[in-house]
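Extended Data, panel c. Modelled sequence:
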Amino acid sequence: MYTLYYSPGACSLAIHVALNECNQQVKLEKVDLQAARTPELLKVNPRGQVPVLVDGDLAIREGAAQLIHILEKHKSPLLPTSEPERTKAIQWLMFCNASLHPAYGRVFFLKKNASNDATSENLMDISVKVINKMWAEIEEHLGSSQYLAGDNITVGDILMCVIANWGGHVPKPITIGPKTKKLIQTVTARPAFQKALQTEQVEYKAAA
């Protein structure tokens, strides 16, 4: 059985969904990101961050690596094995993990740490603009693609939908286009996604 250290609605939700998609049992260890880190969490990740996925003696600390590990191990179609489908799926996973996710991270850092002055406001405006530019890129791409990596859902779609729900924590409007919202509605309606939302008690609003 896997063990997943998670925080409700955080990027760890994508790992939770992937485990559900693969019909895998998981022991969930909830982490309060506002509280001191427990010795148990620090043992598997000295950085005190989530997600952490424990599979036997292996503790995986990076979300994208966790997703690839799960999907390859259980031969899930969410990570294709043939080319170019596999490379496209990994590329969009990395876009969400290494570009879209950090863009939100900058906004959350500013929200928590910046002073309430003109400079901070300008930095927030720039940071939100970067996020909206990425959502515009996704919207344009979906004009010729049903899902991020082509005609079938892949792992990047899962992570994208998790991140999309963070808009309620951003102090300025996030713009997600109609094609993207349609994709979000399709992906989040999957039983594996709904089960994870219910288990973590997360209210999903991005598809509205």
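The CA atoms of residues 90 and 150 lie 12 Å apart. This feature is highlighted in the accompanying rendering.
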